[in-house]
Amino acid sequence: MSGHATRDHAILSASGSSRWLTCTPSAQLEEQYENTTSVFAEEGTTAHELAEDFLRKELGLIAKGTFTRRLNKMKKENEHYSQSMLDYVENYATIVLEHISELKQYSSDVLTLLEERLDFSRWVPQGFGTGDVVLVADQTLEVIDLKYGKGVPVSAEGNTQMRLYALGALNQFEMLYDIENVRMTIVQPRLDSVSTDEIAASDLLDWADEVVQPKAHEAIEGEGNFVAGEHCRFCKARSQCRARAEKNLELAQHDFQEPPLLSYEEIGEILPKADELQKWAKDVQNYALDQAEKHGAKFPGYKLVEGRSNRKYTDEAAVIKRLKDEGYSEEDIYDMKVNGITKMEKAIGKKPFKEYLSEYVIKPAGKPTLVKESDKRPEINSTDSAVEDFS
Ligand code: SF4
Asked: How many Å apart are CA 243 and CA 295, to the nearest integer?
């Protein structure tokens, strides 16, 4: 399978563009941190490899036998592979094929490229990325990105990473095709989410010239102001960054007036700050622990101790044997439980799970959660549910 894990590193990456377009000196500041990988990133790499091969098979670019051989190799050698991953990848591929068919309705020829290197260095020094799928048709260009993660929902709307990929593709094909419209789609199969944004090619080029190019110039030079915000979330400097600390400490200050109890209005002003404060505080705590544990760092007023732990068996088989020998029943010894839904789906695959078990699965109403008004979930009427609870 291809080199998804070895994609090169650019200082001004497309994936980090929401940061360096807003906080221009962040890209150079991040350079002093090591590149780390996580189990989620490795899992994403496997999913991308599988998706690429699956699509190549569906598009007739590789033989079915070749796909099966590669799949079997992955099953044997890659710990991140699972049946549910194949199911999710299949869902993603179905969406890609639908988008290709849709474009074919208006265009006699649709150029389909997988894992295409997209060069946007015309606007961003060393700027390049890899487009999972690039479709070029008469008048329309589309870039599709698979996001395998399920932790953070990612929308294509105004997404700067997608726009930079699209710019790379536009730069490559604008001479050969008459492209007027650019579409950018993000598929997040594990969240059952597909989002698409559209922009006129001329507007995209204006954005590149007027916003991206000057910001990229500042960013590569490490110039401009540090600006903290939601984009700090994946910044490598997020735990130590002074600008972020100052912004959060500022957030924590609030001019409270008399009377002694806060009004709903005042609490409403604190709530949006609380999310950001919590994230920042957690980042600082994790960083301090990591430094103390791995590098012996000392923080005034704090020390490293052993956390609380629970007792555990050294040899489960020996425990079972001894208790059986002593005449205890299996009920006393075992606590047998059916697999949870996610584990079961992973074990038997999404399709069989749906076929055999969907009638036994319900989704109970979730615990009420206070979220921002922009959240897509419908509002529940708390007074109604309180009356219901009461009756
Ligand atoms: S943490 Fe935020 S403010 Fe600080 S460098 Fe990173 S992006 Fe900029």
From this structure: 24
